[in-house]
Amino acid sequence: MLEPVRFSTYHGGAREEGIADFSASLNPYPPVWLDDMFERAREISDRYPYYDSLEEGLSGLLGEEAVVTAGITEALYLLGILTLRGRRAIMPRHTYGEYERTARVFGAEVVKGPNEPGGLAELVERGSVVFFCNPNNPDGRYYSPGELKPLLDAVEDKGALLILDEAFIDFVKNAKSPEGENIIKLRTFTKSYGLPGIRVGYVFGFPEAFRSVRMPWSIGSTGVAFLEFLLEDGLEHLRRTMPLVWRERERMERALGVRSDANFFIKRVGDAEAVVESLKKWGVLVRNCTSFGLPGYIRFSVRRKEENDRLIRALRKV
Questions:
Q1: How many Cα atoms are found within 13 Å in the side-chain-facing hemisphere of 159?
Q2: CA distances (Å), 145 to each of 27, 149, 152, 188, 193, in order?
Q3: Four-CA torsion 148, 149, 155, 161, nearest 10 degrees
Q4: In sequence order, which ranges of the chain are alpha helices (DSSP H)?
Q5: What is the pLDDT of residues 40-96, one digit of tens each?
Q6: Sheet of 297-301: strands edge to edge?
Q7: Which residues are bridge partners to 184 per DSSP?
Q8: What are phi and psi of 206, to 5 degrees?
Q9: Residue 1's pLDDT band (boundaries 50, 70, 90)?
């Protein structure tokens, strides 16, 4: 008899009109070519969405061979097929919950440790798989390659595999990503382009292995259209909008006494559930961090100035 694996898959996003949504950590500035992209998706919806040439173009744009996936979530499940069965899956105690969910789905032994790279490195064993989010979700802390070195060395010395989730790295000023033969990097455009429903991500590392188990046509016609416009845009959208996000992030840090390297913050509030409900009355939705093992904290994202002003006022009231 089949038994369900019981984990929540709700990751934020307002379901009510009139609510300013700070629960999902997305770029609040959509691409200027969004309407044209959806029109293109409609035009090509009568055919199977092959995207081999677009994948080659993306690799050229990024300077490294990339494998396109339906967001990071599909990449995690492909990892389950490739490497998680019967393995020891090591991850920080307070981080993105899908690592644990995927590991348990594929029968891996889940081991949780400190969020700091040095402390996590002490748990690495031969053949284990280590998950690390950089910058981390939900606290927004980014670790430079130098700060990651204890973990990188442990993975190399023990012949382990490091899964480096860089979903929010586009939001980090002057970010650098470490190199290594035992590293798989997971990235996505859904955050930095503010389009989580489109489901387009990519993987660096072991490309042939990922292609061998990837589902055909996984991103659909909208994903294909997105890649077409992305390649034509040449990442100009990120160069134009990231400084706007950084400016508002710095302003929110000063106003609220919080700190982050990404486009979201966590704040200790005591009873997070009660605070979330109170903020809704002020027309503001934030994320309860209980699912991250932090029931006393809320998480909220950086949005446009007028929305951020609304959040700052509401937080001060509550």
A1: 3
A2: 25, 6, 9, 20, 25
A3: 40
A4: 34-43, 52-62, 71-79, 98-105, 117-121, 145-158, 207-213, 220-233, 236-256, 272-281, 305-317
A5: 999 999 999 989 999 999 999 999 999 999 999 999 999 999 999 999 999 999 999
A6: 264-268, 297-301, 287-288
A7: 163
A8: 50, 55
A9: very low
